[in-house]
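User: quick one, sequence for these tokens?
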């Protein structure tokens, strides 16, 4: 029934009214959680709100965010847990200029580890011809984008398919010709 969670939230709200003002540490974790939630970094938001909950289990705002996050994670498409984990990572900045496909996926693997403080790792399996890995290049500039979106745009630019599997991300050539650059205008 839906009544029980509402009653629990009401009880928590009443309990939080009787609690003293939040500590500076609690306020800082709330700010971090709200900022991460706003950016779509749900893993970081959950960590921050859980810290608030540990400090003050009666903090109704933190409890509400944790409930929202639980519902949000359930509503995400039922893909592999690796894709969900990577979707929660926000890449602050991507600047690739004429980078080879091989170096791009090496960069993405390293970036996942860095932005998650070593908590997330990703394996890319490139089922591509060697000449594509070593010579095909892309250029991409993005800021504050979910990791999976960065991978999606890399794949689109390089005419590749990406499939998230349990232990790796499989990268294969897309069927059909690569998108062509527009022809230069005729000289007059």
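Assistant:
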């Amino acid at each position: 029934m839906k009544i029980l969670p509402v009653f629990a939230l009401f009880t928590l709200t009443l309990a939080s009214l009787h609690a003293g003002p939040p500590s500076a540490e609690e306020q800082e974790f709330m700010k971090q959680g709200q900022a991460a939630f706003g950016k779509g970094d749900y893993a970081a938001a959950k960590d921050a709100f859980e810290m608030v909950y540990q400090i003050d289990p009666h903090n109704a705002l933190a409890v509400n965010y944790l409930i929202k996050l639980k519902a949000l994670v359930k509503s995400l498409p039922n893909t592999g847990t690796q894709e969900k984990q990577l979707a929660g990572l926000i890449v602050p900045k991507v600047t690739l200029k004429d980078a080879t496909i091989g170096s791009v996926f090496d960069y993405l693997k390293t970036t996942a580890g860095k932005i998650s403080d070593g908590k997330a790792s990703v394996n890319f399996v490139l089922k591509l011809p060697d000449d594509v890995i070593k010579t095909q290049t892309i250029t991409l500039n993005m800021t504050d984008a979910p990791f999976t979106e960065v991978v999606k745009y890399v794949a689109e630019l390089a005419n590749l398919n990406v499939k998230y599997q349990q232990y790796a991300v499989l990268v294969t050539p897309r069927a059909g010709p690569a998108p062509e650059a527009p022809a230069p205008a005729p000289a007059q």
